[in-house]
Inverse folding.
């Protein structure tokens, strides 16, 4: 069983809550998202099995990322690391880039991966979530391993993204600038004690 995240004040205590960041199996804006994550303090990465695969496909080594971040993977049927939410170890959940599969599961209330379970439990713990959805426009130009591709999200993908944006304590963003703005606003809000 993983150990609870330590904080700068006292290991194992939630006196200094962190940012939980869930990665899914999307390569859309993955490099730019990871670059942004690495500029932030007190972030833990939670990887689905698909995210662990996709990181390798894009040339990222988990050992190198572990030098800068705590990483939790989807190795347990019950998503044991989700329990850290219950103890106040995280003030915010960010999911992104989020595949259409992850978004659809979040909309339907399905929590069968580490990241969808994090989203469900964050909602139950009233922890705000920021979701960086991939399928937000009728046409998406994105990076695939070794090439650029044009994708055409289905109507259901676009509808699910729009539905998720109506959920309580959930902010859906559709590009990297909006992601950075939402995360910075949340961190700024926390530093000034607003809720």
């Amino acid at each position: 069983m993983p150990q609870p995240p330590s904080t700068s004040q006292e290991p194992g205590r939630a006196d200094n809550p962190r940012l939980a960041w869930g990665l899914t199996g999307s390569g859309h804006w993955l490099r730019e998202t990871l670059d942004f994550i690495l500029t932030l303090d007190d972030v833990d990465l939670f990887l689905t099995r698909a995210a662990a695969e996709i990181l390798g496909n894009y040339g990222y080594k988990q050992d190198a990322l572990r030098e800068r971040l705590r990483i939790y993977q989807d190795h347990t049927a019950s998503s044991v690391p989700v329990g850290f939410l219950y103890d106040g170890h995280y003030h915010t959940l960010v999911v992104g880039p989020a595949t259409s599969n992850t978004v659809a599961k979040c909309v339907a209330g399905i929590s069968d991966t580490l990241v969808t379970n994090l989203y469900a439990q964050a909602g139950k713990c009233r922890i705000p979530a920021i979701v960086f959805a991939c399928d937000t426009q009728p046409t998406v130009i994105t990076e695939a391993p070794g090439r650029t591709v044009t994708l055409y999200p289905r109507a259901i993908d676009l509808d699910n993204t729009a539905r998720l944006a109506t959920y309580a304590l959930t902010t859906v963003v559709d590009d990297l600038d909006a992601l950075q703005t939402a995360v910075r606003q949340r961190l700024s809000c926390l530093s000034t004690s607003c809720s």
